[in-house]
Amino acid sequence: MIDLAINGNKICTPHGIRQAVVILKNGLIADVCSEVPVDFAGDVIAIGDSVLMAGVIDPHVHINEPGRTDWEGFNTATRAAIAGGLTTLVDMPLNSSPVTTTAEAFDQKLAATQGQLHTNCGFWGGLIPGNTDDIELLIEKGVVGFKAFLTHSGIDDFPNVTEEDLRKAMPLIARHGLPLLVHCELSTDGQLATGDPQSYQNYLSSRPKKWEDEAIALMIRLCEEYNCRTHIVHLSSANSIEPIAIAKRNGLPLTVETAQHYLYFTAETIPDGQTQFKCAPPIREKENNDQLWEALRAGIIDFVATDHSPAPPDLKQLQSGDFMKAWGGIASLQLALPILWTAAKERGFAVTDIARWLSEKPAQLAGVSNRKGQIVKGFDADLVVWNPDKSFVVSADSLQHKHKMTPYLNEELYGVVEQTYLAGELVFKNGDFIKLNAGRLINYRDAETQS
């Protein structure tokens, strides 16, 4: 492996943006210094005023392989990842077939990565009714935590859990110090839309904030009772911000993410029939989403993850425009960084905020914060070089996702990814893939093995 030095004016360190030289040796960050050492014999890469940041970590990605590779797959998802500066993903357990709720299914998922893992990847195990006995077997296999739904997941093989199921599982998960990720919607009132199925406002009213708020209240109670690390995925209801803030002030091991689409789009601007915007929970009104930004600013929301959940065109009901029948998921993996930066810079946020929300904090949830997510001596040399001042228009041709449907098509975004490094090796540069299949598997013990 060739030693490298990356010399730039905007190196994003835990102490802020600074001019620095980052030395990469044997896959690690060997040093962060003010100038190239006189005895350095490797190559020096000058990046000028582009930003060098720890690689983006996305712990909420649906790759869907094995079994539903026609939806996405490791090859396309992890190519999209390195094109977008994402150096670590954590794959969700529900959209593959079989679902990742047993040790045997986990083995099948690992086998499916062979020869097509272009970025680092870990895996969440699934928690469903009746699989409590599989929890410790999955932990032995190396899952980094567990994911559960409180409402129908959209996949019949991955049913939602009840409070009784959670009470059986949370003590086991807590014993191992792993997080339980929860899709928080409780459809207790059975509210269904009866109006125009093409109307976005009709769809929005069918999944009210109340569903989220009641589910989050339940998880806060159980988090306190069992002292189990609990993570609320894709928060969209601003009504739950204050209860979450109180829980955190009380010292509960509670973390929260929101998603790019809740920060970039607003319900008022979504056209009827445009089902590429459908997700669950839904994208809400501007006033609500402004409050999500303030919670992110205050640290009540810990970070941002894509919830990349693609599907074939027929499942998205693009022809009919039927929000009630369409698959609920937004494809955005490759665009994670520029979407967030475009929206954040308009609100006065800095590059250091992006590094915290996309790299440092997600590393903590995934259990890799002792070696990933920051530019620190001794950490893995997983890095992204990007230009915050350059913009581009999202086109289908530029996307590496299997399906090019995304509500971000034709949007002008700021933040062009120029280079991606995995373990100190350049794998992507200015639109070209330099090295593929360089990703590694990650387990909760942070023991990485070459795929």
Automatic annotation (TrEMBL):
One of its GO terms (cellular component) is cytoplasm. Keywords: Hydrolase, Metal-binding, Zinc. GO terms for molecular function: allantoinase activity; cobalt ion binding; zinc ion binding. Pfam families: Amidohydro_1. GO terms for biological process: allantoin catabolic process; purine nucleobase catabolic process. The keyword Zinc applies. Pathway: Nitrogen metabolism; (S)-allantoin degradation; allantoate from (S)-allantoin: step 1/1. Residues 51-425 form the Amidohydrolase-related domain. Homotetramer. Catalyzes the reversible cyclization of carbamoyl aspartate to dihydroorotate. Belongs to the metallo-dependent hydrolases superfamily. Allantoinase family. This is allantoinase. It comes from Spirosoma foliorum. The lineage of its organism: Bacteria, Pseudomonadati, Bacteroidota, Cytophagia, Cytophagales.
